[in-house]
Specification:
mainly alpha
């Protein structure tokens, strides 16, 4: 390994070790808080729990495997090590499993919030908790099946192609849905503002409260999508450039750090939940307050 790439790997390992801890603690607390917060609708809670479990899996498995990969590559010529290809396939299988689950999780959240503000009263009839749970289970099973390509002795470029197709599709579809969500929420905000100026404001108070709660959850979904885009898009660009310039050492270092940026997403998502969901934030604060009393 080149000296410049070696010395850029050391801080990357340290940073991932820190992120491993934050992903574990923050997502563990988030999962507990979501389960204990009754104010979050059950279909939305199931989708958020799925995404939080995916982020927790990144802390438990992906970060340690990525650190191991960096350490192996910094100590020896990985392509000459007979055990490295097997490790790399396992690493890519685990990483792809959680990446696909995250892709579909963000897309599911965007679709759920779009349906919630588009269907209004029909939303509760069509989007039930049981249907959402079945969809979540299907997503995880399908993600595992696609990721298992890495465990089969076939050309690995197939998984790269699938990763690109699924990733770009989720980016585009989620972007369109969130754009529509933002437009509808802005229109609802103007309607609420006009209602508050009318003498019948007390009669419309339930509508204003429900619309305000829905607006917060939809803005949370938009924030999750934007953060997802910021963390994942540089990785796609780096991999694309590396395919054209495979021998450029500086690009190899950039590729490593875009992987870290991608994994950073798992430590930042819980902060958005706490920021946008008051019930989750209050549950976490009460949990830590109770621990300090002991």
């Amino acid at each position: 390994m080149e000296a410049a790439l070696y010395w850029s790997t050391i801080p990357n390992i340290v940073f991932n070790a820190v992120l491993c801890f934050t992903a574990l603690t923050l997502n563990g607390a988030t999962i507990y808080a979501l389960r204990k917060t009754p104010s979050v609708p059950k279909p939305l809670k199931a989708l958020l729990l799925s995404l939080a479990v995916s982020d927790l899996g990144v802390g438990i498995l992906v970060h340690p495997l990525f650190i191991t990969r960096l350490a192996l590559e910094s100590r020896l010529q990985a392509d000459l090590n007979t055990s490295f290809p097997t490790f790399y396939r396992v690493y890519m299988f685990v990483t792809s499993q959680f990446a696909y689950a995250s892709f579909c999780g963000v897309l599911s959240l965007s679709l759920d919030r779009f349906l919630a503000i588009h269907l209004h009263l029909r939303y509760q009839e069509l989007v039930t908790y049981q249907r959402v749970v079945r969809a979540v289970i299907s997503v995880w099973v399908l993600s595992g099946l696609i990721a298992s390509i890495w465990l089969i002795q076939i050309q690995i470029y197939i998984d790269y192609v699938l990763f690109a197709i699924i990733g770009v599709s989720c980016f585009v579809v989620s972007g369109v849905l969130n754009s529509k969500i933002y437009a509808i929420v802005r229109r609802h905000a103007h309607q609420i503002h006009s209602i508050q100026g009318q003498p019948t404001v007390q009669e419309n108070a339930p509508y204003v409260t429900n619309a305000s709660t829905l607006r917060k959850s939809t803005f949370m979904t938009i924030c999750i999508y934007v953060l997802f885009l910021v963390c994942y898009l540089p990785r796609f660009c780096a991999v694309g450039l590396h395919s054209f310039y495979p021998d450029l050492s500086a690009l190899k270092a950039v590729k490593q750090y875009t992987s870290t940026l991608l994994l950073l997403n798992s430590s930042l998502n819980p902060l958005i939940y706490c920021w946008k969901l008051r019930g989750v934030r209050q549950t976490i604060m009460n949990m830590y307050a109770a621990k300090r009393t002991f």
